[in-house]
Design a protein that fits this description.
about 425 residues, alpha/beta, nine-stranded mixed beta sheet, 14 helices, 14 strands, about 20% strand, globular, disordered N terminus
Length: about 425
């Protein structure tokens, strides 16, 4: 991977006695060591190596620390969170919250009218909805080419979970919460439903479609995880639903009754669901966190405006999950590194305001190994094109005219399967 990493917005740094790691690389490696020691991970060997992300203006961003897990190749994780608090005591149970952010980025839904296509999430904004001139005929996901991102995400996340579970010492129980975007894809339709751009039948059909997709993803994930973990699978308890399921249940029931639910109405109902929802949605708590984010400005993990309306419901559900599962042991987000940082950064602000302050949380952001952009010399692999059956491997020279076509499934297995 290192040969073409610079073309993919990453720079590899290797430390040694004469030239030790510094800055973001050093911090990343120290954070990885803290997690390895805190969880007493077996067979995970941190290296003096890191992949530093390069920002759009050419400056250094966060870094991914390198480690070996018994194999020759070095993998890279970015670790986030208050690690001293998360791993201060030996846990009896560890909860892994897997996948929502990475799946959001890889597979985006759209709404189609007779004349245009718009990203579904944009319907939550009045200025976008105001320019919609026809009723929505259908809702679905984007071009078939996006399937590669979904498949790669599946393999990367399963491999990362398998490595964590296999490395844990005997003792702690492991809970697994697969956070497949489902109910959050329902919420943007509400404004269109209110203005009669979307019918109740269209909404109901979309609810069923996304639920089926979630079930399929969970089946694929569980099958792959079982193949990788083998006899270690018995220690993993798979949890049924995340906190957004509470939102979806209220929303689906309201549409079935012929109602047109609002964000404000859903918030009011959620406050009566349980004590954690009541705490997270308490106006004084919510406003305090928003003010803290305003003060942090560009260093804030989440834009304060994203805490309002329908987007705010999604963030609130993330916080509820982390507070709930971090109360009796560390809750570890395994996801896209940037998405995980946003989740942890927001949830920690709520946790500090909770009366017991016990919630422990951290994040593991694995670095994928398919770094390509458009076809050509932009990474070790050219961008996928076609029907999800083949992938082009570009030689280290970066000359895609001499690439080799490989079945996508074979390539993903070679890159991510835990051996």
């Amino acid at each position: 991977m290192a040969a073409d990493a610079n073309r993919a917005g990453l720079r590899r740094e290797v430390g040694g006695p004469r030239r030790p790691l510094r800055g973001a690389s050093l911090e990343a490696c120290l954070r990885l060591e803290t997690m390895v020691n805190g969880l007493d991970l077996r067979g995970v060997f941190p290296q003096q190596e890191a992949m530093v992300s390069i920002t759009a203006i050419g400056s250094d961003g966060p870094a991914y620390a390198g480690y070996r897990n018994g194999e020759e190749e070095v993998d890279h994780w970015r670790i986030e969170g208050d690690l001293d608090h998360a791993f201060g005591t030996a846990p009896e149970v560890i909860t892994l919250l897997v996948g929502a952010g990475r799946m959001r980025d890889r597979r985006r839904p759209f709404a189609w009218t007779s004349e245009t296509r718009v990203p579904l999430e944009s319907l939550a904004y009045p200025r976008i909805l105001a320019h919609l001139e026809q009723r929505i005929d259908s809702v679905g996901f984007g071009p078939k080419g996006s399937r590669l991102g979904t498949r790669e995400s599946l393999w990367l996340l399963v491999g990362s979970v398998a490595k964590l579970v296999q490395a844990l010492p005997d003792g702690p129980r492991v809970r697994l919460l697969l956070r497949v975007p489902t109910e959050e894809h329902w919420l943007p339709l509400l404004p269109a439903l209110h203005r009669d751009y979307a019918s109740p039948e269209l909404c109901t059909n979309w609810f069923g479609r996304t639920r089926r997709d979630r079930r399929l993803f969970k089946e694929w994930f569980s099958k792959l995880l079982g193949e990788m973990l083998g006899e270690h699978l018995h220690r993993v308890e798979v949890l049924a639903y995340d906190a957004l399921h509470d939102v979806g249940s209220l929303l689906e029931a309201a549409v079935a009754r012929g109602e047109k639910p609002t964000a404000a109405g859903l918030l009011a109902e959620l406050r009566g669901t349980d004590e954690l929802w009541k705490f997270v949605l308490r106006p004084r708590i919510w406003e305090g966190v928003r003010n803290e984010l305003d003060t942090a400005q560009r260093f804030a993990p989440v834009d304060p405006s994203r805490l309002e309306g329908l987007a705010g419901l999604v963030h609130a559900a993330d916080v509820v999950d982390l507070l709930k599962y971090g109360s009796d042991g560390p809750a570890i987000v395994v996801d896209d590194a940037d998405a995980a940082r946003r989740m942890i950064g927001l949830a920690e602000r709520f946790a500090r305001r909770h009366p017991d302050g016990r919630s422990r949380m951290a994040a593991v952001g694995p670095l994928g190994k398919i770094l390509g952009g458009a076809p050509g010399p932009y990474g070790p692999f050219a961008q996928f094109q076609g029907d999800a059956q083949r992938m082009m491997v570009v030689p280290e020279s970066g000359d895609s005219t001499y690439g080799e076509w490989v079945p996508t499934g074979d390539l993903l297995r070679e890159l991510y399967f835990l051996r």
